[in-house]
Amino acid sequence: LCAGAVGTPQLLELSGIGQRRIIEQMGITCQQELPAVGENLQDHLCASFYYRSKRKTLNDEFGRWQGKLKAGLQYAFSRKGPLSLSVNQAGGFFHGSEEEEHANIQMYFNPLSYEIPQLANAKLAPLPYSGYLVAVNPCRPSSLGSCHISSQNPHQTPQIKFNYLSTEHDRQEVIQAGNLVRKITQAKALKDITICEEKPAQSVQNDAQMLAYFQQHASSIYHLSGTCKMGPDKQTSVVDQQLQVHGLQGLRIADASIFPNITSGNINAPTMMVALKAADMLLQAAT
Questions:
Q1: For the chain, which terminus, N or C, has the lower number of CB atoms within 10 Å?
Q2: Is 86 helix (H, G, I), strand (E, B) or coil?
Q3: Per-residue pLDDT at 262
Q4: Beta strand extents in 139-267 (DSSP E only)
Q5: Considering only the top CATH level, what class is 4-41+226-286?
Q6: 103 near 93, Cβ under 8 Å?
Q7: pTM for the structure as a whole
Q8: 275 vs 63, higher pLDDT
Q9: Which of 266, 28, 14, 32 is nearest to 155 (CA)?
């Protein structure tokens, strides 16, 4: 089963595997009670800081139809140009404070500043000025959410509760993250090419306002994981070290839902590692 941190617990619960109370409330017969299904949801929460630049950026190119056409043709015929690159041109891991033993903040630098419209299926909208943005997120959040079915209908969106910033640890880390962005953008290399901070600008002058900025403007960067965590106890986990669902034969899970804890960085490579290990386990079991 490889449906991801949302789809995997949804399919398990629709099949009668999970918390008895939730399954039976939906009129489904409980086939295997596993209380941890759909629990332990973790994600990286990211906020962006917007800057007006003295130099031209990709805003100037993608803000005009001529620039979009040029970039499209360049990529179509040569596989080069801005469309051949990731939107994140640089990034790194940082210590939010001198007291942190390990890097606990991840940061991304984009030579394009944009907003994501709230409408479904809306496209990125470059801002109408030369600008760049710095996006930042804490690496190891401690807030835990959940993902459970909302009906017997497999096409019905499940109930997802992220519970972002529900712990003091996470609230302090987003304050660290925001203050670190400002510290770095005040360094000479960036300060020399920056006119001003457009957002949050003067609306954030202290830690309480920084926390409020994250609460109002931060969003997921789609690193959902942990909803079918690995562990030895079927009361607190869903799969064992061989990725087999507790109490069932012939069913393994191989996606980010099995992570006991979210990884410090992006989850794509770790998920591919899980897939590789799962393939080895299946081959060994078949021989």
A1: C
A2: coil
A3: 98
A4: 146-148, 159-161, 194-199, 219-220
A5: alpha beta
A6: yes
A7: 0.91
A8: 275
A9: 14
Given this model, what pLDDT does residue 119 score?
A: 74
Which amino acid would we find at residue 19?
Q
Mapped onto helix, strand or coil, the DSSP state of residue 159 is strand
Whole-number CA gyration radius for the chain: 22
d(CA 262, CA 220): 13
- 197 forms beta bridges with 51
- Domain 45-143+166-220, CATH number (from 3.30.560.10, 2.40.30.170, 3.40.50.1580, 3.10.20.310): 3.30.560.10
Collect all residues with Cβ–Cβ distance below 8 Å to 91 and sequence separation of at least 6.
106, 107, 108, 109
The full set of domain ranges for the chain reads 4-41+226-286, 45-143+166-220
What pLDDT score was predicted for residue 287?
Answer: 85
Instruction: Report whether 64 contacts 129 (CB < 8 A).
Output: no
- Mean per-residue pLDDT of the chain: 95
Q: Indicate which residues carry an active-site annotation.
A: 223
Q: How far apart are CA 3 and CA 7, in angstroms?
A: 5
